[in-house]
Every structure is written in structure tokens, then in C-alpha cells.
Specification:
Structural class: alpha+beta
Radius of gyration: 20 Å
InterPro entries: Bac_transglu_N, Papain-like_cys_pep_sf, Transglutaminase-like
Organism: Niastella soli
Protein name: Transglutaminase family protein
Largest sheet: 9 strands, antiparallel
Oligomer: single chain
Shape: globular
CATH architecture of the largest domain: Roll
Length: 321
Amino acid sequence: MPQFKIHHVTRYTYEVPVRDSANQIILFPVKDEFQTVLKQDLTITGEPAVDIYKDYYGNEVGSFMFADAHTELKIDSKIEVVTQPRPLPTDSVPKEEQWNSLQAIRSQVPFIDFLKQESCDVVDEIKRDTQVGQYLKVTPLTAAQKLNEYVYQEFQYIKGVTSVETTPDEIWKLKAGVCQDFAHILLVMLRMTGIPARYVSGYICPNHNGMRGEGATHAWVEAYIPNYGWLGLDPTNNCFVKDLHVRLAVGRSFSDCSPVKGTYKGTSNHSLEVGVSVSYEDGHVQDDHATVLTAQPNTNGLQKSDENSYRRYLEMIQQQQ
């Protein structure tokens, strides 16, 4: 039973004072038989009252308002959590029976959202290139595992070439990205085979062997396997999710699970810095991971954080071709 201490800091810095900052945070780890939260300290600039509620997918969500003029907003979360190992499916039921079970739940409310494709124009191209029909000839568990491996092998892990707004179409054409991009592509593939799949946000904790995404916010996928339930698959590392992943939220995609999002009144010129550190109970600390983004106003006047590095990288690839 590994025990981790996770420190997650989000800091917005504004060029001039802003006000009326309304925010939503999903920084509260899931509490179930596989994950026990021993302690959480949450500190926010201005010490606003945080209203906590459960959303449609069962995630704990906090909302708060900071009305006073301010040039910085810092959200500081410190967590101590214990995780339990997860047993894997036995996969002993005949494959025809399992696929029939998945067909029978397609119209059931708990699964409808997790079978519906997000906006994606390359579904037919993905079906052709992956030869999706071959995955229907094995059990859903084997299909999910093979698709997880496909994403791991066919996509390059490159930081900075995508943003949170990058679409599955762009990810597919680029064949590169980070954990959330790998997760979004795997969601498309699982759903097209008829396997319900949901996006998971959280942290991947250090195992001293080196895993992509260690010590930072992380994303992976859960696939619904008949006679078992939701099985965690990490396409970034080509592994099952066991006791080194700490879950924060589940949803259809990143937009349902964003750790912090909000609005404010004031300048569009601001910077966002996110830092995460993870340590074992024995004090071993994984190096901090921090990302600094400079916000630029888009054409409709809304604020967003976007390095535009994906566009530059894609143009470079196109020029090389």
C-alpha cells in the first residue's frame, strides 16, 4: 500500500490588478476502496469560501469567488493519499458473450456518454488505418489492451507540441503529444469498437523505474470490461493502472476534468504557472514539474493560455514533407 504526498500549485499572475475571479477546481482525489485520502490542505489567495459539490460524473468539485482586486491568484493543494493494488480481469467468459453484454448496455444511462464520440472528423481514417475489425475478433479486454499498445507505439511523446484545446483530429495527424492527447485518441478507438471509455485525470507517482508523466498531472483512460467494471489503461506508458496512479476525476474528455478553470474581469495579459511534486511517505521526492504559459487574447476577446507550439511544429513537419 504505497502512501504519497502530493503538492499541486496553480498560480495566475496578472499584468495589472483584476477582480471578480470566479473559479472551479477539481483537485479532490476520488475516495473509494482503492484510494484513501488521509489529509488535504487547500489554500487559496484571499481565503475565499469554497463550495464543494458532486457533479454529474460523481467528481468532487469546488467553486469560489475572489472579488477583490488582485495581481496574483494562487491555489495550493497538499494531499496525503494511500492507494491499493487493483486485481486484473480474469477474462474467462467467451468473447461472444462479452461483446453481446456491451451491445446490451449501449442505451443505458451510465454508459451513453462514454460511448458517444467527441467531435472527430478522422474516425473513418482511424478505422481504416487501425483495421478496427480485427479487435472485434478477440475479447474486449484483449482489444482494449491492444489499442492501448497501439497508441503507445504509434504516437510520440513530445511536450509542448499540443495544448488543452488540441483536437483528436490534430493529434491523429501529428501522431504526437502528451498524456492527455494519448488518452483522447484511445477514447476514440475504444468507443468506435463499442467499449465504453472515460477520461481520467490525476497524478502518476514515482516508481523509481521511470514512467512518462511521473510527478506531474497525468491523464489516462478507463474502459468498461464486462464482468469486471472500469479498467484503467495508461497509453502513455502502455500499462494497466494499479497503485501508482492517483485519480482526481473522470469524464467524457479533458473538459470535464480540468483541475482549474475560471473567469475574471480585467486584462487579458496574464501568465499561468503549474507545479506538481510527489513524494513517498519515506520522504523521497520526485522532482518538481512546472509549466509556465503566457495568455494571449484570441479573436473573440476571451482569455486563453496557448503556446501555439503545436502550430509551429505542424508547419515544420509539413515543410519537411
